[in-house]
Amino acid sequence: MQKALSIIKNKYYLALILFFVWMLFLDRNDFISQYEYRQKLSQIRKDQDYYKEEIIKVKKDVKELSTDPAQLEKFAREKYLMKRDNEDIFVIVPEEDEKKDK
């Protein structure tokens, strides 16, 4: 008891304890905020990797579409439902998708 009381009375220990309390709970950059920032940074890095992969895929597709007319026609037909003048296009929607839309 006497030892604990002497530690509390010591101004250096008191300053050190106050500093740690301030850094743990009261400061703008406390440990909880730092943990949240690290989690956010991790998520942003995952997103960055995903978008880099997507950019590579899109560049490959653009190169392929600009060099091969057959691929360009296939892309236009599948993605934008384009057709030639003498054709008819029928879009078949599965029943599961119709139920989800309603």
From TrEMBL:
The lineage of its organism: Bacteria, Pseudomonadati, Bacteroidota, Sphingobacteriia, Sphingobacteriales. It holds the Pfam family DivIC. This is Septum formation initiator. Keywords: Membrane, Transmembrane, Transmembrane helix. The keyword Membrane applies. The chain crosses the membrane at residues 12-31.
